[in-house]
């Protein structure tokens, strides 16, 4: 494994950003920024004998600062939505930023995706850490977080999340990479299999209602592989509410997803210890330039965000996002790349 560090410019407040690149013997590589602990590129072998960068991203830190979408970023403290932008914990009500209509999304106005992280190389892995102080984005308690990126010799990227808090708080960490296994263009012809029998019903604001619906007989049934575009245009209330797929799936086990690129021959398999996964088809991604002179827009990528269920603090029976003081949180997700 080789490691390269590359200057990546400065943020508006003057912080120097560094890109850390891991490369294995097969030539596969992952580049992660210490701004947002962000996956900026992920290149893996394709069927033609070359390499394909399978995630969307930007060439400059300024573009990451200026644009929304959370491309490749580590999301926290709480990924996805919290209804009403508030929660009760320990007899107190915590008011959060309303940055998604009336709701709170992906950690607030300046979540983990817009923070600088400390980086170190540890046993051929990149470890990014930061202390989220008590009151940051109105969350209670100091939270010490580590995110570890490991690139294996057989072309798998393992992301491990560790956290411990000084007082009871909420935590739901994930990565928000936008995958396109062809390296560009639409993902509607990618073939997707999701190992889930149920998904979370959304209201008009893409907030779970609390009902878990069967996928059978709906456009959300990916138990048998089909193209992402096969049913995305169907007249379905849930698809209309999300502008496409933007829903949490209740995973049946550790195997979450198999995604196949229709041109590159690349197959992505996702395994996780998390109970849910948000399937998002980049419905709100506005047309914009990307890295290396590429362009990107709606339906040009798919996000596979392994997670606890959205708004879990407000729904009995959903996995709880509460992390108790002194309790250690650990989770892992593995993205494995092979050829068809």
Keywords:
single chain, nine-stranded antiparallel β-sheet, six-stranded antiparallel β-sheet
Could you give a short description of this structure?
The protein is mostly beta strands and 340 residues long. Helices cover 4% and strands 45% of the residues. It has 2 helices and 30 strands.
Account of the 3D structure:
The chain is mainly beta and 340 residues long. It is built from 2 helices and 30 strands. The chain has helices at 61-66, 237-242; strands at residues 2-10, 16-23, 29-33, 38-45, 51-53, 74-75, 81-82, 86-89, 92-95, 104-105, 118-122, 125-132, 143-151, 156-165, 169-170, 174-175, 178-179, 191-194, 196-202, 208-214, 226-227, 246-251, 255-260, 266-272, 276-280, 288-289, 295-296, 302-307, 322-323, 328-339. The strands form 8 sheets. Strands 11-12-13-14-30-24-23-18-21 form a 9-stranded antiparallel sheet, with no helix packed on it. A 6-stranded antiparallel sheet has the order 17-28-25-22-19-20. A 5-stranded antiparallel sheet has the order 1-2-3-4-5, with no helix packed on it. A hairpin with a 5-residue loop joins strand 19 and strand 20. The model has no long low-confidence stretch (mean pLDDT 97).
Secondary-structure content class: mainly beta
Q: Major sheet: order of its strands?
A: 11-12-13-14-30-24-23-18-21
Per DSSP E runs of 2 or more residues, the count of β-strands stands at: 30
In round numbers, the mean pLDDT is 97
Radius of gyration: 19 Å
Q: Distance N terminus to C terminus?
A: 25 Å
Shape: globular
**Helix percent band:** under 10%
Number of alpha- plus pi-helical segments: 2
Q: Which residues form runs of ≥5 with pLDDT under 50?
A: none
Beta-strand content: over 45%
For the sheet with most strands, the description reads: 9 strands, antiparallel
């Amino acid at each position: 494994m080789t490691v390269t560090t590359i200057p990546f410019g400065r943020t508006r407040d003057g912080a120097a950003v560094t890109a850390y690149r891991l490369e294995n013997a097969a030539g596969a590589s992952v580049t992660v920024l210490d701004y947002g602990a962000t996956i900026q590129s992920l290149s893996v072998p394709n069927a033609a004998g070359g390499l394909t960068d399978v995630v969307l991203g930007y060439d400059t830190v300024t573009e990451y600062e200026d644009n929304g979408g959370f491309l490749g970023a580590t999301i926290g403290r709480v990924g996805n939505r919290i209804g009403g932008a508030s929660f009760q914990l320990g007899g107190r009500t915590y008011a959060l930023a309303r940055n998604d209509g009336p709701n709170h999304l992906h950690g607030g106005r300046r979540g983990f995706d817009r923070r600088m992280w400390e980086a170190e190389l540890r046993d051929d892995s990149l470890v990014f850490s930061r202390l989220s102080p008590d009151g940051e984005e109105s969350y209670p308690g100091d939270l010490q977080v580590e995110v570890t990126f490991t690139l294996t010799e057989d072309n798998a990227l393992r992301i491990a999340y560790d956290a411990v808090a000084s007082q009871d708080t909420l935590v739901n960490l994930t990565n928000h990479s936008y995958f396109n296994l062809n390296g560009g263009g639409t993902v509607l012809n990618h073939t997707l299999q999701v190992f889930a029998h149920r998904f979370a019903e959304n209201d008009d604001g893409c907030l779970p209602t609390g009902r878990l619906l069967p996928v059978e007989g709906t456009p959300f049934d990916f138990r048998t592989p089909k193209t992402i575009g096969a049913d995305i245009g169907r007249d379905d209330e849930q698809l209309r509410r999300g502008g496409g797929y933007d829903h949490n799936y209740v995973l049946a086990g550790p195997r979450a997803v198999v995604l196949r690129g229709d041109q590159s021959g690349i197959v992505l398999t996702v395994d996780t210890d998390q109970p849910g996964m948000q399937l998002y088809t980049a419905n709100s991604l506005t047309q914009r330039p990307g890295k290396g002179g590429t362009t990107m827009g709606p339906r040009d990528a798919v996000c596979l965000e392994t997670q606890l269920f959205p708004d879990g603090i407000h729904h009995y029976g959903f996995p709880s996002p509460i992390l108790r003081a002194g309790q250690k949180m650990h989770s892992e997700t593995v993205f494995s790349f092979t050829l068809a």
